[in-house]
Design a protein that fits this description.
Two copies of one chain form a homodimer.
Chain A lengths: L8 E2 L9 E3 L23 H4 L5 H8 L5 E3 L2 H10 L4 E3 L1 H7 L4 E6 L10 H13 L4 E6 L3 H13 L2 E7 H6 L1 H9 L3 E5 L5 H9 L7 H14 L3 E3 L6 H21 L5 E5 L4 H15 L6 E7 L4 H4 L1 E6 L8 E6 L21 H8 L4 E5 L1 H15 L5 H20 L4 E6 L7 H8 L10 H8 L7
Parallel strand pairs in A: 5-15, 6-7, 6-9, 7-8, 10-11, 10-15, 11-14
Antiparallel strand pairs in A: 1-4, 2-3, 4-5, 12-13
Chain lengths: ~450, ~450
Amino acid sequence: MKDRQIPYKTYLDFEEIPKQWYNLRADMKNKPAPLLNPGTHQPMKAEELAPVFCEELIAQELDNDTPYFDIPDEIYNFYQMFRPSPLVRAYFLEEKLGTPAKIYYKFEGNNTSGSHKLNSAVAQAYYAKKQGLKGVTTETGAGQWGTALSMACSFFGLDCKVYMVKVSYEQKPFRREVMRTYGASVVPSPSNDTNIGRKINAEHPGTTGSLGCAISEAVEVATSTPGYRYVLGSVLNQVLLHQSIIGLETKAALDKLGEKADIIIGCAGGGSNLGGLIAPFMGEKLRGEADYRIIAVEPASCPSLTRGVYAYDFCDTGMVCPLAKMYTLGSDFIPAPNHAGGLRYHGMSSILSQLYDDGLMEAVSAKQTDVFDAAEMFARVEGILPAPESSHAIKAAIDEALKCKETGEEKTIVFGLTGTGYFDMVAYEKYHDGKMDDYIPTDEELAAYRAKLPKID
Amino acid sequence: MKDRQIPYKTYLDFEEIPKQWYNLRADMKNKPAPLLNPGTHQPMKAEELAPVFCEELIAQELDNDTPYFDIPDEIYNFYQMFRPSPLVRAYFLEEKLGTPAKIYYKFEGNNTSGSHKLNSAVAQAYYAKKQGLKGVTTETGAGQWGTALSMACSFFGLDCKVYMVKVSYEQKPFRREVMRTYGASVVPSPSNDTNIGRKINAEHPGTTGSLGCAISEAVEVATSTPGYRYVLGSVLNQVLLHQSIIGLETKAALDKLGEKADIIIGCAGGGSNLGGLIAPFMGEKLRGEADYRIIAVEPASCPSLTRGVYAYDFCDTGMVCPLAKMYTLGSDFIPAPNHAGGLRYHGMSSILSQLYDDGLMEAVSAKQTDVFDAAEMFARVEGILPAPESSHAIKAAIDEALKCKETGEEKTIVFGLTGTGYFDMVAYEKYHDGKMDDYIPTDEELAAYRAKLPKID
């Protein structure tokens, strides 16, 4: 057994929780490319975004220069419910692997939303309330983001309307009921509330919906209902800003323990968790103060960084949202139906895309069954049942720890454990029953999606 | 807004976690009545219990005198995964209620089993392993206890066989999959593995099972398989001993904050949570060092303390287990099918029954829809989605806090929040859809069950 001088879990004292978010863009030499108007292909201005998003969130979205943003008292107050989250030393996992590496994980799953999504949900709900809005709309797939947003809206007394992909609404009723507990109205999408929903229902009778359609419905309702705006749980710069609380707490806890990370690992779908976790570390790297290996882990079935291209693309399948420059598989891309859990987005946050393109971080992909192997092993030794998304990071952390075992290096590995898998037991059941496979898109399939990318000068 | 000098959450430092369990029986003047042999009606001896239970657990079960038991290092090591649990100051709830009372809750739900059950599961698995056993058997209803036990057995490398009531096995597959993730074999009960299972299947073709039948199957397998024993998650003295960690941590945290509890509230089914939470406080009361109001809260649909009788009764419907003296509704009693969640046991732990009979604690009952009203309000203001069981304590704490609002008294209320409701969303759905009712057994029904109690001199 290793010497256990460092506690299993480190909780910052409450007053040690960071009081500002960190805006990574301020330290980037190559700034992330701006959002473009889908009609004119010119950079979107604040006033063009105002019908869709809250004003203060637009200001955060467009600000590439201000390094720190104060966290408003009301948000800090809410953070007290579920923050600080623990930084856990994975002694049990280290012993299981027999690695000389030190493994830490930042566990963001100990809240009712079950993930890190709550960090941004509370911020977005707060600014909507502050602007005097009545409510917000959003879309959700399995319900992780919708749950987080409904909790935040309930707290601030804001109406919350969630368009939930119909197949999830019907087959995964548990998160739907959590959202209803928090007073959200949850609408199966496509609905008959909207023009786009009615159109899709007419054209595809009996359709079970898609995330792209749900986004279009949520945006339509937000822009056509007085006092409403649309909110989004990942991809956007503002979301990464709010999620920087993850990395700032992680860094503060490591500093308190006298530890320095060598490798930082996070799963990546739209990029909100990874962007938040790495923020202060990448900041040091950008400023030349320290060096870290930073690794994004994505599913082999949705490999935007490892097999996509860096180009302007639509953020939604409806092609009504602004264009973003990102590593993308094409806005039509949908992972194979056998793909469990989240990390299904066709593109990657513009910030992370630029950092990756600049060679400042690495990316790897992991196959689904390997991810569940890692998840189950982790659950058994560390006691936490991880979300499939988070388990991508576990898989990569284990791989790095096993490399250290070969080389004998005592590296310090930090990964983000974004959430729990309590609402993903259907995927675990498939895994236990040997019904999970590893379909990976072919080069031909990816080329076909890529051919449909918009042409931007 | 109240002055917030005290932090929202208090985590003990790891080295402050108690290193011994406290055995409340040592300070009881009137000891709990002994278990009786169902054949001879004589007190059960250790050797009679040995075919069913682990030796060291039997010693703990029968020991009414030793006040403290050292927590073995191996158990303490496991505790590091999920303990200390936080003591939370419910500022948000206090503000919602507008009460001068101070409300604290000890939150035991932040672990994968979702409840306090893990505290005893790890102890029972450890002693089984120490005895050189191959495995343990148990029964589970919705799966809370089975999940906790499977986690503990996985950690110690012990085989774990869980007989799960068939209707839950089929209709609530999520916890079943959690158990499988931890390597347990989960068998729908009645099965064809056992004599009793085959008999029940033959007599009642298509039966969906009962907890009583699952207990009988688990006991039969444990006593007929070399290297196996049976373990139970509540009711027994040994379980209350292990659960004293809840109360000891609560007391240590309150002491650290300079707070003194006035009222301590816990939900009560078999009594493991309540017995654990109140242990050190009741100890002080028994020794005349302090006084507390201690309140057990039970469902109005399963009111063993408030409407049962104090008498010897069978612990199981199969009537093969020892007889226990307890407040009981009769071993045939099953709550109405509309009753959601746990707290379904027909009797109450002998320790708590004796304390209640001696006037050392109070008991109240709560109706199901009132409990869910309290649960939803709590979820919205405190951010934690509570288990239906735990919500009985929330309901009573709210009632006491509202009394303080009337009188202006600034009492300190402490309650146990035993777990989360993530696997109880079907019950929440019924509540949201207005399909939950409040059936309460009539006096005539209770009298009929009571008439079947065994006659013991």
